Amino acid sequence: MLKQDIIEAIQQHALACYPEESCGFIFPDRYAPQRNVSPTPAQHFRISRQAMTEARAEHIVAIAHSHPDGNHFPSLMDMQGQISTGVPWYICNIDQGRVTDFFGWGKPGMTPLTGRPFRHGVTDCYAIIRDYFFRHRRVTLNDYPRSWEWWKSGEDLYEKYFRQEGFSVIESSEVEAGDVFLAAIASRQINHGGVYTGNGLILHQLGNQHGYAPDRLSCRTPVTPWLKHIKYWIRYDG
């Protein structure tokens, strides 16, 4: 969790840069604003290579930028950038000149497993599987950059990667606590997943049609209504 004075500094910088994107480095004791050198600063941000090199030498702990009148979830480029830098990223949303949201991602276990709002790429269905395995199995599954509604554009998240992450398909009669389900909801392609936690319950995170839903909270719920959507059960073999 960031210190409140650092959060406030990020937000003030984002307001000062609006309607362009702000960007900066987060150190353990401070936020360091940076110049956005992107040729399209209202839509993207870029930090100079020299500034990145100097920041790495000072051991940055995170990177922050703003989304002026933009999505309340990371873009594909944001997710790619976070993975390439290897530190958490934070986004401050500025809508019509006001701070409306602030969130971060990039480190498993940053949020509780239940009661968290749906946010594509941050607290979505794959993220809750990653966080479950980090918390309960001490296993760190790789993250994968993904566009919003990736399954509609031919991208594949689950079937493409689950085997290389150490999972194998099991029969439904073999399911036990800690196994993962893969489901297709209003789609021919698998686009949802979650964890069976025992006693007839699953842990999952439902989304919506907009990429962010503060009222769609992760929860444990009976598995029975979801059986018709489940295509595979998979188990982590390590």
Automatic annotation (TrEMBL):
Q: Which GO terms describe its molecular function?
A: cysteine-type peptidase activity; metalloexopeptidase activity; zinc ion binding
Domain NlpC/P60: residue ranges = 76-237
SUPFAM superfamilies the UniProt entry points to: Cysteine proteinases, JAB1/MPN domain
Q: Does the keyword Metal-binding apply?
A: yes
Q: Keyword annotations for this protein?
A: Hydrolase, Metal-binding, Metalloprotease, Protease, Thiol protease, Zinc
Q: Which GO terms describe its biological process?
A: proteolysis
Q: Which InterPro entries match?
A: JAB_dom_prok (IPR028090), NLP_P60_dom (IPR000064), Papain-like_cys_pep_sf (IPR038765), VirAsm_ModProt (IPR051929)
The text of the family note is: Belongs to the peptidase C40 family.
Protein name, per record = NlpC/P60 family protein
List the source organism.
Vibrio quintilis
